[in-house]
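User: Some background: our group keeps a shared notebook of sequences we're curious about, and every so often someone picks one and asks for a predicted structure to add to the entry. Today it's my turn. The entry only has the sequence so far, pasted here. Could you supply the structure so I can complete it?
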Amino acid sequence: MSTTISGKTPVRIAFVIVPESTLPPDKAVDLDEVDGLITASIGKRHITEALRAELEELHRTVTQQERWVQTSPEANPHRLEQPAEGLGIAHVAWERVAAEVLPQGVLAAPVERDRMLVWLLHEDHASAQLCAEVSEYGRRIAGDGLWEQRWPS
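Assistant: Of course. Here's the predicted structure to add to the notebook entry:
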Protein backbone atom coordinates (compact mmCIF):
# COMPACT_ATOMS: atom_id res chain seq x y z
CA MET A 1 0.00 0.00 0.00
CA SER A 2 1.36 3.42 -0.87
CA THR A 3 1.54 6.35 1.52
CA THR A 4 0.63 10.01 1.24
CA ILE A 5 2.88 13.03 1.64
CA SER A 6 2.27 12.91 5.40
CA GLY A 7 3.29 9.24 5.51
CA LYS A 8 -0.24 7.97 6.20
CA THR A 9 -2.11 5.41 4.14
CA PRO A 10 -4.27 7.39 1.70
CA VAL A 11 -8.03 7.36 1.92
CA ARG A 12 -9.40 5.25 -0.89
CA ILE A 13 -12.36 6.24 -3.02
CA ALA A 14 -13.87 3.27 -4.83
CA PHE A 15 -16.42 3.41 -7.62
CA VAL A 16 -18.38 0.19 -8.11
CA ILE A 17 -20.97 -0.49 -10.80
CA VAL A 18 -23.95 -2.37 -9.36
CA PRO A 19 -27.39 -3.54 -10.52
CA GLU A 20 -29.98 -0.82 -9.89
CA SER A 21 -31.97 -3.30 -7.80
CA THR A 22 -29.27 -3.08 -5.09
CA LEU A 23 -29.67 0.71 -4.74
CA PRO A 24 -32.39 2.60 -2.89
CA PRO A 25 -35.46 3.13 -5.10
CA ASP A 26 -35.01 5.73 -7.88
CA LYS A 27 -31.36 6.35 -6.97
CA ALA A 28 -28.37 6.33 -9.34
CA VAL A 29 -25.72 6.21 -6.61
CA ASP A 30 -25.34 5.28 -2.97
CA LEU A 31 -22.31 6.27 -0.89
CA ASP A 32 -20.90 4.32 2.02
CA GLU A 33 -18.16 5.78 4.20
CA VAL A 34 -15.88 4.29 6.81
CA ASP A 35 -12.60 5.62 8.11
CA GLY A 36 -10.17 5.40 5.20
CA LEU A 37 -12.66 4.36 2.50
CA ILE A 38 -15.61 5.81 0.67
CA THR A 39 -17.45 3.58 -1.78
CA ALA A 40 -19.78 4.91 -4.46
CA SER A 41 -22.09 2.16 -5.69
CA ILE A 42 -23.40 3.35 -9.07
CA GLY A 43 -26.27 1.83 -11.03
CA LYS A 44 -25.01 0.22 -14.21
CA ARG A 45 -27.11 2.33 -16.57
CA HIS A 46 -25.71 5.57 -15.08
CA ILE A 47 -21.98 5.18 -15.82
CA THR A 48 -19.72 3.33 -18.23
CA GLU A 49 -16.92 1.05 -17.07
CA ALA A 50 -14.39 3.28 -18.84
CA LEU A 51 -15.49 6.38 -16.91
CA ARG A 52 -15.66 4.44 -13.65
CA ALA A 53 -12.05 3.34 -14.04
CA GLU A 54 -10.86 6.82 -15.02
CA LEU A 55 -12.63 8.46 -12.08
CA GLU A 56 -11.19 5.95 -9.63
CA GLU A 57 -7.65 6.64 -10.88
CA LEU A 58 -8.12 10.44 -10.83
CA HIS A 59 -9.56 10.35 -7.30
CA ARG A 60 -6.63 8.17 -6.16
CA THR A 61 -4.27 10.91 -7.30
CA VAL A 62 -6.21 13.61 -5.44
CA THR A 63 -6.19 11.65 -2.18
CA GLN A 64 -2.55 10.54 -2.43
CA GLN A 65 -1.49 14.14 -2.96
CA GLU A 66 -3.64 15.03 0.06
CA ARG A 67 -5.41 17.79 -1.83
CA TRP A 68 -8.62 16.44 -0.25
CA VAL A 69 -8.62 14.61 3.07
CA GLN A 70 -11.34 12.82 5.00
CA THR A 71 -12.30 14.05 8.44
CA SER A 72 -13.04 11.14 10.77
CA PRO A 73 -16.47 9.57 10.25
CA GLU A 74 -16.17 7.58 13.48
CA ALA A 75 -18.16 10.08 15.58
CA ASN A 76 -21.05 10.00 13.09
CA PRO A 77 -20.92 6.92 10.82
CA HIS A 78 -24.16 7.90 9.04
CA ARG A 79 -23.14 11.49 8.30
CA LEU A 80 -23.44 11.13 4.51
CA GLU A 81 -27.10 10.20 4.85
CA GLN A 82 -27.89 13.49 6.57
CA PRO A 83 -28.98 16.50 4.49
CA ALA A 84 -26.46 19.22 3.76
CA GLU A 85 -26.32 21.91 6.42
CA GLY A 86 -25.54 24.58 3.84
CA LEU A 87 -22.26 25.72 5.41
CA GLY A 88 -20.74 26.36 1.97
CA ILE A 89 -17.18 25.57 3.08
CA ALA A 90 -16.24 24.22 -0.36
CA HIS A 91 -17.93 23.23 -3.61
CA VAL A 92 -17.62 19.78 -5.24
CA ALA A 93 -19.74 18.78 -8.23
CA TRP A 94 -19.93 16.51 -11.25
CA GLU A 95 -20.97 18.18 -14.52
CA ARG A 96 -21.70 16.53 -17.85
CA VAL A 97 -20.01 18.18 -20.82
CA ALA A 98 -19.92 17.56 -24.56
CA ALA A 99 -17.07 15.39 -25.84
CA GLU A 100 -15.43 18.34 -27.60
CA VAL A 101 -14.93 20.14 -24.27
CA LEU A 102 -12.50 17.41 -23.18
CA PRO A 103 -9.23 16.42 -24.82
CA GLN A 104 -9.59 13.52 -27.25
CA GLY A 105 -9.83 10.20 -25.43
CA VAL A 106 -10.42 11.83 -22.03
CA LEU A 107 -13.64 11.00 -20.18
CA ALA A 108 -13.13 13.07 -17.01
CA ALA A 109 -11.20 16.19 -16.13
CA PRO A 110 -10.96 17.83 -12.71
CA VAL A 111 -11.07 21.61 -12.45
CA GLU A 112 -9.76 22.61 -9.04
CA ARG A 113 -9.36 25.94 -7.32
CA ASP A 114 -9.33 27.10 -3.72
CA ARG A 115 -12.56 25.78 -2.11
CA MET A 116 -13.76 24.15 -5.36
CA LEU A 117 -13.45 20.91 -7.32
CA VAL A 118 -15.63 20.32 -10.36
CA TRP A 119 -15.34 17.11 -12.36
CA LEU A 120 -16.17 17.54 -16.04
CA LEU A 121 -17.54 14.24 -17.33
CA HIS A 122 -18.10 13.11 -20.91
CA GLU A 123 -21.87 13.30 -21.37
CA ASP A 124 -22.05 9.93 -23.15
CA HIS A 125 -20.55 8.15 -20.14
CA ALA A 126 -22.53 9.52 -17.15
CA SER A 127 -26.22 10.16 -16.63
CA ALA A 128 -27.64 13.53 -15.65
CA GLN A 129 -29.23 11.86 -12.61
CA LEU A 130 -25.87 10.49 -11.45
CA CYS A 131 -24.23 13.91 -11.73
CA ALA A 132 -27.07 15.59 -9.84
CA GLU A 133 -26.96 13.04 -7.03
CA VAL A 134 -23.16 13.14 -6.67
CA SER A 135 -23.27 16.95 -6.67
CA GLU A 136 -25.82 16.79 -3.84
CA TYR A 137 -23.47 14.50 -1.91
CA GLY A 138 -20.75 17.08 -2.65
CA ARG A 139 -22.83 19.77 -0.93
CA ARG A 140 -22.77 17.61 2.18
CA ILE A 141 -19.22 16.22 1.94
CA ALA A 142 -17.29 19.34 0.89
CA GLY A 143 -19.82 22.01 1.71
CA ASP A 144 -20.16 20.91 5.33
CA GLY A 145 -16.47 20.06 5.80
CA LEU A 146 -16.70 16.26 6.01
CA TRP A 147 -13.78 16.23 3.61
CA GLU A 148 -11.32 19.13 3.64
CA GLN A 149 -9.39 20.63 0.79
CA ARG A 150 -5.70 21.16 1.54
CA TRP A 151 -5.01 23.75 -1.12
CA PRO A 152 -1.54 25.34 -0.81
CA SER A 153 -1.69 28.87 0.56
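Suggested note for the entry: Strands lie at 12-18, 29-34, 37-43, 68-70, 91-97, 108-113, 116-122, 147-149. The radius of gyration is 15 Å.
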